[in-house]
Amino acid sequence: MHLESEQFTCGNGIELNISSIGSSYTEEFLDFMRQVSNETHFMSRYGDEIGQSKNDILAEQERQSILENDERQGMISIFHEGRIIGNIAIRSVGKGRKTAHRCNVGLAVKKEFYGYGLGTILMERAIEFAKDVGYEYMELGVLSDNMPARGLYKKMGFVECGRFPDAFRLDTGESIDEILMYKRL
User: Which of 81, 122, 144, 148 lies 20 to 30 A from 112 at CA?
Assistant: First the structure.
């Protein structure tokens, strides 16, 4: 996936850049994921579970290289002052013909930038990209207590299609369901 870097002004007047990222951003991406995973329980892992070793970095670099060089998959990030503050990954559900019409997405925004419309911008770009490369369905999972994200996804045309009970278990012992959603493109 390749998306040219583009500058835009978000709702509060801050200048930001948006572009696709690849393996050259591996360490910045891992740092971003550690930060957002420490800020909220809505992510699939805790920040301390995101590897920082040389092997972890190499494995992530390889994963990003695959996405970067695949015309139907990729990652789009929003940058503020050279730091990733929002990201969305678009991935094929499968490589075979039976699932080639489906993709899934994962979205994250740094907490200090909540409410600026960055989730909407990233989702719009991901949906546009997915349509352009021929996907017919976009899928995602969201924690049942993540009401802001569920509201965003509904606003973007996603509908709930299922619930996975007890999908996530927090260190506190709390159990949270996962809501499955999809959008017909």
Answer: 144
62 vs 37: CA distance, rounded Å: 21
Tens digits of per-residue pLDDT, 38-77?
A: 999 999 999 999 988 899 999 999 989 988 889 999 999 9
Is the CATH code 3.40.630.30 the one for domain 6-130? yes
Gap between the Cα atoms of 125 and 128, Å rounded: 5
136-149-141 Cα angle (round to 5):
50
Token pair for 16: 């930001």
Query: Which run of H or E residues covers position 102?
Result: strand 102-109
- Predicted TM-score of the model (pTM): 0.94
Residues 10/25, Cβ–Cβ less than 8 Å = no
- The strand pair at 15-21 and 6-9 is best described as antiparallel
